[in-house]
Design brief:
Layout (H helix, E strand, L loop, with lengths): L1 E9 L4 E3 L4 E3 L2 H12 L6 E12 L6 E10 L5 H7 L6 E3 L22 E3 L3 H12 L5 E4 L4 H14 L33 H11 L15 H18 L3 E4 L1 E9 L6 E9 L5 E5 L3 E3 L6 H9 L5 E2 L2 E10 H9 L16 E3 L5 E8 L3 E4 L9 E4 L8 E10 L8 H7 L19 H16 L6 E5 H6 L17 E3 L8 H17 L9 E6 L6 E2 L14 E3 L10 H20 L6
Parallel strand pairs: 7-8, 7-13, 8-9, 13-25, 21-22
Antiparallel strand pairs: 1-5, 1-6, 2-3, 4-5, 10-11, 11-12, 14-24, 15-20, 15-23, 16-17, 17-20, 18-19, 21-23
Helix pairs in contact: 3-6, 3-13, 5-13, 9-10
Bound molecules: flavin-adenine dinucleotide (FAD).
Length: 586
């Protein structure tokens, strides 16, 4: 097949039926365009398949831009045609994007040899799925509950201000992104097309087909829940086992130095209170960024890890119409375009970068804490993205230099333990110091919000002016269980507030109305990425502990659903290769 990029058609050429969200591809028009580009008659093209479709709003008339794969009526002509366009990057051979198993488990694989996957978020899901597809019958341990039960627990915080610490937005089947916008794109390098594997599995388990071709696909919360359940069933069908409410509380590591080898996991069955050892030589640790107790346990067991930068800030809410207007102009409101997103960045005079994070068009701001008496914000939406407001994190980048390094702060954050922070040499950063900082900010937000899981909030106009907000204006915020208006200057360090006050008017120049005085800020956003990096070698095993595979967002090898899924595929393959004595795929 031949892949042709940059095939452009006016928006009106795309047939869309809003009543059933169905988009019909303009195959005949694209075929004519492709034939013209290649200098061949349209009849020489036997089939055209749309690989990607995006929109280009830079011209006065909005364009639909396609990448298409064509099959020639006479496939023998393909090589000659490709040779004619060898110097053009827009005409290339279609790559083979199908995922191929790296090997197969021996039929004799004993129960005691089954690999373990800890965490059933996107990373753990895909590690377990590919291991199951290769016949390894993985055992999955997930601290939270299965997704339907978890949904009830999560809603209890949003509606009744009751947090379930082991079953919430961060913990449970599907992982952190289950109650999300379900954005499914990423900027990772993906030469092996593993992202396609992830997307194809999503579609096979109920996601809409359009996620395979839309440039910025998303599936929203409800559809994601069904997909997660479908993949769970597939893993079980293939011989895997998924144990919910099972928290890994310790790891047994035998040997010293280069001989350190994982030999067992200690697991707490949270439903019964029983604790048991699960012997294993291969455990994928797909923990997510909020498993602070497990990070601390790894630190105590000497697993190589370090503090890393992340970002802190607020959620910002605007009427979605402002964003649509700025992005789509006169085409705003066209059902095919849907609710528009944005991406903004500002480099402040104090050296800090402020940027938009995890933008949720037509969505809601959600309470995302996993710890009692702490407040954390994030955003989610449904597939339709039909809510009145756009929301996004507006966050400021921070570094380990910003994190606390005093014993008192550590003892406060870790129930009296200081993890040796008092012995740190000058210029060294404690691996757990980012967690201390997150906990400080989240606890302060709880206090500022009124100690009942309401989040502290402020109008943008008041935030820029530095005055407390007293009542909402034209923007009705969506955060549940509620917002307590205050002065958010107390919620974050002064450098972050200063950088954000500078960024807002600058963003207002890029998106007219972005700095509207009535827009609402809700705090705090602290879980933008993991506060630790759990390093691994080229074989995907921990830098200093064989058999332990740090993976996904928690270990800092992913950021987002798609990249976490891709990392899961890679780590699942790495486990299979280690068990079979094979080279890793290149
Ligand atoms: P996680 O999804 O965090 O999964 C880790 C799992 O491990 C959890 O289920 C946890 O319960 C379990 N676990 C942790 N410790 C243990 C233990 N000791 N024992 C057993 N189990 C354990 N990304 C996007 O790409 N698009 C979006 O639209 C998007 N929206 C988001 C909205 C919200 C509200 C949130 C919170 C996140 C959002 N994200 C989004 C980010 C995305 O969810 C994460 O990047 C992704 O889920 C990371 O996947 P993961 O598998 O590495 O970790």
């Amino acid at each position: 097949m031949i892949r042709i990029a940059e095939l452009k058609l006016p928006l009106s050429a795309v047939e869309y039926h809003p009543e059933n969200h169905t988009e019909y591809q303009p195959i005949a028009k694209l075929t004519a365009l492709a034939a013209e580009r290649l200098g061949i008659p349209a009849s020489a093209i036997a089939r055209l398949h749309v690989h990607k479709r995006s929109f280009d709003a830079r011209k006065s008339a909005l364009l639909a831009v396609y990448i298409a794969d064509i099959t020639l009526a006479d496939p023998a002509q393909e090589a000659a045609l490709l040779a004619r366009f060898a110097d053009q990057s827009h005409v290339t051979p279609t790559p083979d994007m199908a995922w191929k198993p790296v090997g197969a488990a021996p039929a004799t694989l004993a129960d005691s040899e089954r690999p373990v996957v800890v965490g059933f978020g996107p990373c753990g899901i895909f590690a377990a799925l590919v291991l199951a597809q290769m016949g390894f019958r993985p055992i999955v341990l997930e601290r939270g509950k299965e997704v339907r039960e978890r949904t009830k627990d999560t809603w209890r915080l949003w509606r009744q201000r009751e947090l379930t610490p082991e079953s919430n937005v961060q913990f449970g089947e599907g992982g952190a992104g289950t109650f999300s916008d379900g954005k499914l794109y990423s900027q990772i390098k993906d030469p092996r097309h593993l992202g396609r594997k992830v997307m194809t599995e999503f579609v096979q388990h109920g996601a809409p087909e359009e996620i395979l071709y839309a440039a910025h696909p998303h599936i929203g919360t409800f559809k994601l829940v069904k997909v997660v359940e479908g993949i769970r069933e597939e893993i079980i069908r293939l011989g895997g086992e998924i144990r919910f409410e099972q928290r890994v509380t310790d790891v047994q590591i035998d040997g010293e130095g280069a001989q350190r080898q994982l030999t067992a996991l200690q697991v707490l069955n949270q439903a019964t209170g029983e604790s048991y050892a699960l012997p294993t030589q291969h455990a994928v640790m797909a923990l997510g960024h909020s498993s602070r107790d497990t990070f601390a346990m790894f630190y105590e067991r000497g697993v190589a890890m370090e503090a890393k930068p992340f970002s802190i800030g607020f959620r910002i809410e605007h009427p979605q119409s402002i964003i649509d207007q700025a992005r789509w102009g006169k085409d705003a409101g066209h059902p095919l375009l849907g609710a528009a997103d944005y991406k903004l960045v500002h480099h402040a005079a104090n050296g800090r970068a402020v940027y938009s994070f995890c933008m949720c068009p037509g969505g809601t701001v959600v309470a995302a804490t996993s710890e009692p008496e702490r407040v954390v914000t994030n955003g989610m939406s449904q597939y339709s993205r039909a809510e009145r407001n756009a929301n996004a994190g507006m966050v400021c980048a921070i570094n380990p230099e910003d994190f606390p390094r005093d014993a008192k702060s550590f003892a406060w954050a870790f129930d009296g333990k200081t993890y040796g922070v008092e012995d740190l040499a000058e210029g060294q950063f404690h691996p757990l110091s980012g967690i201390v900082f997150q906990r400080q900010l989240e606890s302060k937000a709880f206090l500022l919000g009124g100690r009942n899981y309401s989040a502290p909030g402020q109008l943008v106009g008041d935030f820029v002016a530095g005055t407390e907000s007293r009542e909402f204006g034209s923007v009705e915020p969506s955060y549940k269980p509620g917002i307590h208006l205050t002065n958010l200057h107390h919620a974050l360090p002064a450098y972050a507030i200063e950088a954000m006050r500078e960024a807002l008017p600058a963003f207002g120049k890029k998106i007219r109305g972005y700095d509207m005085p009535d827009a609402v800020l809700t705090g705090v956003e602290t879980r933008t990425s993991s506060p630790v990096k759990i390093g691994r070698g080229a074989d995907f095993q921990s830098e200093n502990t064989r058999g332990l595979y740090p993976a996904g967002e928690g270990a800092s090898y992913a950021g987002g659903i798609l990249s976490a899924g891709v990392d899961g595929v890679k780590v699942g393959e790495a486990v299979a290769c280690a068990m079979l004595g094979l080279e890793l795929p290149s």
